[in-house]
Amino acid sequence: AETVVKRVGAENRDEVLATTILAYALSALMTGAVFLALGLFKLGSLIAFFPRHILVGCIGGVGWFLVITGLEISSRMTTELTYTLETLRFLFQNHHVFALWSTALSLALLLRLLQQKIKHPFLVPAFFMAVPGVFYVIVWIAGFEWEMLRATGWVFPMPEGDAPGWQFYSYFDLKKTNWSAILETVPAMMALTFFGILHVPINVPALGVSTGQDNVDTNRELVAHGWSNILSGGVGTVQNYLVYTNSLLFIKSGGDSRVAGLMLAAASMVVFLIGPWIVGYIPVMVVGSLIFHLGLELVKEALWDTWGLVHPIEYLTIATIVVAMAGLGFVQGVFLGIMLACVFFVVTNSRKEGVRYSCTGASAKSTVRRVYRQQKFLREVGKQIYIFKLQGDMFFGTINKVENEIRQVLSRQRWEANPIQFLVLDFALVRGVDFSAAEAFGRIRRAVRSKGVVLVLSGLDHESEMGKALKMVGVWGAGAGAGLGEGHGQGNSVFGGREGVDTQSFPGGLSEALEYCENCLLASYYKTRESTLEMAKRKRLEGLMAGATFRRAIPEEDEGDDDDEVGPMSPDTVSTNFFADQLQNSPRKNHIYQAARQTLHPRDKPSPHPVNLQQPVPTLLAAFQDTRENPTDFYLRLSLYFVRRTVLAGTILWRQGETATEGIYLVEDGTLRSIQEFQDSGKVQRVVEVILPGTITGELGLFTGNARASTVMSETDSILWGLSQDGFQKMVKDDPALAVEFMRVGMSYSAERLDIMVAYAFSLS
């Protein structure tokens, strides 16, 4: 209005009125269009992220505004209330003013006492209908003049003029409208629209909180606000949006139905048509006590009812919002509350553990089915794999603790007790990584590189925001391997020539990452062992040529530096090490060789079985000979019940849920894949198990007859040996002792697999 007056001139009264009321209507149309668009595009769901304690703080702030408004109205203050000594003197030292506002406040307190005794929705409307009746009786008995009551502030003054509400339509005149002034008011229209948008996300959820409505559809409310403002602007009136205080009072008074809303609309229409003269007969104490009542209720809800129920920092935020809204204003209080909520979020999440758990590869293993001897070897050397299961948001508040925990594994004390070869970081439960966290992971990569440790990432999608952030700082991808060969003196990698190995990443999950680490440990041993045996042969040949006689050499642990690539071979009867001048040891390699001597080395334990055996006996021996002690005759008799079968890649042997009619399969050559699907939070999850040569699958279905727990298919062209249900039943009938021992062997094998799968399941939790 001031913009229009300044543009048009106060002397042009008709032009000012026509332009101003049209600007009001256009502003309502603009607000309605914005509300409607927000609701139709489902942007109201963003409001769901508005912190609940911020809403509670806003409720308390509104309650305080109402208490102040009650003081202003009931004391008949002519200016806005300020927190000064003059205001206190005006309210308390002036006995007439004190009687005005204290009467209204006393009525509000009386109503609150009655509500403690009477639990009925009609109490509030009945109370506010009774108070004017009592007032009118007193006025009639005492014979007070209405003009005197209006002059002394007990009754509202009579409005000037008695024009009906529809008279303003006569001021619309497009010919007298100043369109340049309309354009100048567009910024004010946008500000009003923003003000409405700011209130609705607060008022609607706050009303839901106060009325116990947990299923408030904010998008539906926005659409309703859009149509309401469009209709309002279409009939030439001003903006509108849900008023929290009036709506709450109306609902708590029993107005929680459409019939009540229609009744209120009809009563408002009557006042609109007959004019505002009725206001001159309403006692001020009625309106004052009504405002006091609702204000005290909201302040209590925000500050009293939440005491001891919310976190102390959240309660401090609520109280701060109430104080800020009282001292600074509504919008300032809301923004201060949002800032405090952000600080609270950072502080709270910084206290959360970014590492869900950490363990070694001895506790968590891949789902690959390996021969028993390899499994035993990996149990021994698994602690050279260290796994960190990360969780939550990796940001500046949590990453320092995560980085410190990882660096502890690389510290001198921990390193001397357990040197590692692989550091596995699982990102499956990580929601996001900010730049500070990405930089920290870059520092971690450089730290593990200096120790000769391979950094392995799992559960990380390369195309995701996290993957791109880590690639940007060189954790993986191009540049991650740059300079990896530097500074490898102390932590030289166990792998021959692999000091410059790049960061490894496996989006498929933790099992793939652990499979890679386990394969490297096995390959490292076999490769080094072959080169060691070859060197031993050359040395023996040189000794024989020199006239020396040697006995058989075996791997033996020896102490040395941390820079060699191959373990020593020491003669049993010679005290000197023939390779000390060429080979050196590292703690990690010593650990591998010690474990290998106990599990993998063929000379440690001579085989009691003949060498030249026909399939499937050698494969049966590879699968079962280390689980239970049995003579060769047992495996020869058992092999008679197995039938050879060749399958092509992609062949499905059985599906999950099918009856176990196929029996058991022993893998001679090729690779099978077992896929188990299950529902988790409405999503289909998969557990994939790789089945290698020298292992079996399907033993539980064969022995129990239950439905298959997973789908098994051939990943490559494979040679299998199958034992069907009919074949097993024939074994039970023809050779019961063989069948019983086979069940014992098979269940021992399954027990080993169960331990591994339980460990893997633990790693997923």
TrEMBL record:
Location of the Cyclic nucleotide-binding domain: 662-732
Residues passing through the membrane, by range: 21-41, 53-71, 122-142, 262-295, 315-347
CDD domains: CAP_ED, STAS_SulP_like_sulfate_transporter
Keywords: Membrane, Transmembrane, Transmembrane helix
GO cellular component labels: membrane
Domain (STAS): residue spans on this chain: 385-517
SUPFAM superfamilies recorded: cAMP-binding domain-like, SpoIIaa-like
Membrane topology reported for the UniProt record: Multi-pass membrane protein
Source organism: Podila minutissima
Entries under SMART domains matching the protein: cNMP (SM00100)
Main location per the UniProt record: membrane
This protein's name: Sulfate transporter
Stored InterPro entries: cNMP-bd_dom, cNMP-bd_dom_sf, Membrane-Transporter-like, RmlC-like_jellyroll, SLC26A/SulP_dom, STAS_dom, STAS_dom_sf
Localization of this protein: Membrane
